[in-house]
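Posting for a labmate who doesn't have an account.
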Amino acid sequence: MARSEATPVVVTIPEPELSGMAWVERYPGSNSLSELEPAFQANVRAFIEALKAAGATVQVASTYRPEKRAYLMHWSYQIAKKKIKPNKAVLRIDVPILWDHSDDTKSIEAATAMSKYFKTLHLGTNPALRTRHTTRQAIDMNTTWTGDLTIANKDSSVVTIKTEPRTGMNKELHAVGATYGVVKFKWGIKDRPHWSSDGR
């Protein structure tokens, strides 16, 4: 009896494309709270509710970020900031982007345009390849208020924040957030909007 041969698996590798604005809408992220990991999502919702009840304004910029998008953000920033030569960027077989245009000026211009779109050029730290965003345990949000902010901790005890700045960078607000399990980014002004499950 003849032995049947297995059907060969054909893997199609996408044609590589030069970096630039054609890439920025691929692998989209989210600013929806429903995309967060359930336990962290519950903590974030409770913290935001407390902020709004206290009269603060909260604008959510980002929650979940796919790894492929994080990859684009990381290397576009690195090249735009001239921290690495375009031909030294690490390639991914599942993201067929060519960072090196065989011309450093063109490569840097393309990466800078991408980084501007991603709003990462102002950061004082590299957008990480693997972050709490990729595990659905981080949120970027901008918080502001006027005057004093009287806000409840998770245990319902109330604190009044009289200090400045009246933004998410306020250290007293960080202490309030921590009671909800929403921890401000440990490295301060390097990433102002970032909060996560553990401050990373």
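Reply:
Got it, the structure tokens are right above this. The chain has a mean pLDDT of 94.
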